[in-house]
Amino acid sequence: MKHKNQVFDNVLDLIGQTPLIKLNKIASKFKGNFYAKVESFNPGHSSKDRIALYIIEQAEKKGILSPGDTIIETTSGNTGFSIAMVSIIKGYDCVLAVSSKSSADKIDMLKTMGAKVYVCPAHVSADDPRSYYQVAKCLHEEIKGSVYINQYFNELNIDAHYKSTGPEIWKQTEGKITHLVACSGTGGTISGTAKYLKEQNPEVKVIGVDAFGSVIKKYHETREFDEKEIYPYRIEGLGKNLIPTATNFDVIDEFVKVTDEESAHTARLIAKSEGLFVGYTSGAAMQAIMQLGEQGAFKEDDNIVIIFPDHGSRYMSKVYSDKWMNEQGFFDSKNEAAAQNIQYIK
Ligand code: PMP
Q1: 51: domain range?
Q2: Which of 28, 61, 82, 124 could crosslink 44 through cysteines, CB 3.0-4.6 Å?
Q3: Which of 186, 282, 307 to mutate to test the pocket of ligand 1 (most atoms within 8 A of CB)?
Q4: Are residues 171 and 249 in the same domain?
């Protein structure tokens, strides 16, 4: 257990044991108690610290990795940052293939953390040789002694959350959690956490959050991979154009889809109402709560836990930029003045 007055051996000792924080305002018009699992309290500012440390340590235990080896991954940014951080402490080289959809801030951060970065086009199919999956595969074949984390198809991604996030939430809610709401990208977070929670209490309802333009929700409902569902969207880290094996669809009860625009406004609202500066997918997860709340999905005594995966600072050039919001047309429909809170004194 982490303590505020403790001295730590290195930054990796601070991974996990993130706080569960009650949301007092944003969902107060709905029945139920709402709590956010705020993953930006990890030292790498996201939930991905958990899987980076866990998967690398499993590889070390199996004798696959030794210092000086290279770790390769495909990532929208957060996993890359976490792997880079773990690599620094443990003495590995870190090579990352990222989507061109990732923000410039995220790519700069990866470079700052010593990673070598390949930026690949976002809107090509997963089997296109230019896609970040194929680029990573190729690098793995070329670089001797390399390990490919492959978070979308690595069962250890689920295990990491089964062993940490799930037990933490169970303990923090004293077993009183009734609903888990989490975004699904690789699906590792929701699958591992849900598996643990449902083993403790099969009645816990698990709701995944998906994007319009992603195949995940339809696959969950029909077990059909429908290419027609795919089109570009702006939220990074949520939804997919393929079916990851790191998603255990059997432990998820339902998926809710959210729009780029509403998720962006809800992310801003979290900051303004709760004082929590969190990322775009936290806005998406909260937006799902808003939609479910409007439908009367929650009861007075429900304890709903929402995962907030990362920190707002990673989205300064996107969701938290008025210029970007304007360019997307996100201010139009809500008639929200871009510079509402700013007065320029001349
Ligand atoms: N939010 C953000 C910002 C992410 O980077 C990711 C990971 N792609 C997720 C949510 C979803 O987490 P998971 O991959 O465990 O489903």
Answers
A1: 47-148
A2: 82
A3: 186
A4: yes
Q: Does 312 contact ligand 1 (Cβ within 6 A)?
A: no
Choose the catalytic residue: 4, 22, 37, 48. Answer: 48
HEC string of the chain?
CCCCCCCCCCHHHHCCCCCEEECCCCCCCCCCEEEEEEHHHCCCCECHHHHHHHHHHHHHHCCCCCCCCEEEEEECCHHHHHHHHHHHHHCCEEEEEEECCCCHHHHHHHHHCCCEEEEECCCCCCCCCCCHHHHHHHHHHHCCCEEECCHHHCHHHHHHHHHCHHHHHHHHCCCCCCEEEEECCCCHHHHHHHHHHHHHCCCCEEEEEEECCCCHHHHHHHCCCCHHHCCCCCCCCCCCCCCCCCCCHHHCCEEEEECHHHHHHHHHHHHHHHCCCECHHHHHHHHHHHHHHHCCCCCCCCEEEEEECEEHHHHCCCCCCHHHHHHCCHHHHHCCCCCCCCCCCC
Instruction: Please state the atom number of ligand 1 nearest to the C-alpha of residue 307.
Output: 10
Is there a domain that residue 315 lies in?
A: yes
Q: Same domain, yes or no, for 315 and 209?
A: yes
Domain presence at residue 157: no
Is the same domain home to 240 and 294? yes
Is the entire prediction scored with pTM above 0.90?
Answer: yes
Is 101 a known active-site residue? Answer: no
186 Cα nearest atom in ligand 1: 14
The answer to whether residue 202 is domain-embedded is: yes
Q: For 192-250, how does the pLDDT look when each residue is reduced to its tens digit (9 = 90+)?
A: 999 999 999 999 999 999 999 999 999 999 999 999 999 989 998 898 888 999 999 99
